[in-house]
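[step 3/7] fold_predict: job queued, chain A
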Amino acid sequence: MHWTVETQTARLFDDSRPLVTSSGGVLHEVDVAFETYGELNSDRSNAVYICHALTGDAHAAGYHAGASRPGWWDNLIGPGKPVDTDRWFVVASNLLGGCSGTTGPSSTNPATGKPYGLDFPLLSVSDFVAVHRRLGEHLGIETWAAAVGGSLGGMQVLDWALSHPQDLRNAVIVAASSRLTAQNIAFSAVGRHAIMRDSQFHDGRFHEHGTSPDRGLSVARMMAHITYLSEEAFAEKFGRQAQSRELTRNFGVDFAVESYLEYQGQRFLSRFDALSYLYLSRAMDYFDVFADPDALALVTEDPVNFLVMSFDSDWRYSTKDSRRIVRHLEGARLPTTFREIPSPWGHDSFLLEIEPYHATIRAFLDRAWERR
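[step 4/7] structure written:
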């Protein structure tokens, strides 16, 4: 049975209370798009925050009116699902710097009446968390029963738990990293260069020119998508299969995998903005949450229960990355559960319905419910 949801928007920062970013930039207007699922109970103890990955948005579950596809994490969130909306009040928001209803670099700068472009301040994961916390304040929620996120979403959950542990009782971190490897930074750098070297980029002012660096953005998406799947997944889906009946030896789309990547690149253009891709991917590059020797001081004084999960075929954010997080948490004697899930699908596994993965989150949140 389909359940219908609507995206809401709230202005969380304004002239009377602007957002000062970690880079020192000041945003005098910040609107945030968000969705809620379930009901907040009388003592406000059943709230769960969903943090999305690089190209996600606020529409995490349910269906928009007239839509044929549900939200991006609908297999995890909903009535009777691991994040059970018959029990939990779930909030999902679009990231600061995004392009799906939340203020970002393509939004109008109130000082100029034109899109910010590259005048938008550089962002960090801590800025995303600052906006999440303000949304909680807007909704009247002081303490979240849990925050849940995969990939970049998991980085937000980790940063939040370490920097403001008083806000969270439980943290679910899936297929994430405490700092990107040089290889990961390199992949993102190539994607950004593809965008910025597109002739239609116009130094970030492409909206004013009525253009868009579509070629660069599609190439960036194609590049990234390669890292989201495992070699096994590519082999099973495509192998060396020809797109048509047989290979014709040309520089066009000859292999099935080429057609797939081109489709992913083109499809991405209809839902994502090139500037948001630049800003959000760059925030990931600079994330290094344990770099500060005192990174664990606050959460050690006010412990959060952690669940850290990885997938054995994920080479983008591998089990090694998750184990690094676990070592730091366990070294501080924080209550930490770790599980590596077998899956052939690589990094994208965190978006899929994989029974051991979902069962682990369900069991962890069941214990969270009992501890409320």
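[step 5/7] annotate
The first strand starts at residue 8 and ends at 13.
The two ends are 30 Å apart (CA to CA).
exit 0
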